[in-house]
Amino acid sequence: METAIQNRNRKGAEQGMERTDKKQQRLAYVARRYYLDNQKQSDIAKEMGISRPMVSRMLSEARALGVVEITVHEPDSQADGLFRRVCRLHSLKGGRVIEDAGDDRLTNRRLSQGAAELLQDLKTCRLGVGWGYFVGQLVTWLEENPRPESSVQEICPLVGNAGFPIRNYHSNENVRLLAQYLDAGPHFLYLPALPESLDEKQVLCSTELYHQICRVWEQMDTALVNISNYPSTPDFASVARYGNRLQEQHACGRLLAYYYNEKGNIICSEQDFAIQIPRELLKRCTNVVGVCSANTSVRALRGALHSGYFTHIVARAGLVQGLLEAP
Fold first, then answer.
1. Tell me, which fold does domain 78-325 have in CATH?
2. pLDDT class for 70, splitting at 50, 70, 90?
């Protein structure tokens, strides 16, 4: 049976809850009159028979207790608005559009930071990396801003190693450095990007080294792929691989060592001997992030987006605006 003390405690608790409910009702009434009915505090005070300072205190208490929640919607930046428009037009999942810095070097640093942040937002675990100027810039930025807490666990190259002395195209070395700065495990591709001939490519692609990297490509969840201009430097033996096809089919850009036109069509050749991730494997990847350096052209970005390979982009605002304004 309930004792007298328990009875008093129960009644006291019930009365306290009742007082709390009544208080919150009064606070809600004052807040509704002020915020929704646009009544002055002085008019609310007269209506309720209390002072105006009391109304002010009640409004403050209503906010403190969560009776009132105030949300401020900041106006979109230009980059945010551009980003949403591009996503709608090209069915992108997301990415980063970065405000131009007025200087290519600073803009590339901002783009590198945006790419690193996007990889983290995507919770990238197994990353494939292309080559080119932007990848070199990303390596430099991460050298100064390492991210040992990154979600990336494994990194692999998407294209073989170049035979010319330009660091941005030394795929294995870039992967080694990225793995170091992201505290991830590297996978290497010990094959050239451009062997001597198609026959040599066929021999190299029959080796266990190639089959091993194919298994790694099949497991990756994110690919970071350069969107570059055409004509490009270096030339990647384009005449030996394509003859006159790049000119005849109006190539405008390059992703990895593949060339494409503004309609997004990859330009193919039976004599193409480049060693890189097969397009069907790239297409299967959950996230394919197209990264544009400060000098990527509107034509190159337009063709890349029309290709249908990319799910995300990282680009400067001026480039995206030029894409949207172009006929």
1. Rossmann fold (3.40.50)
2. low
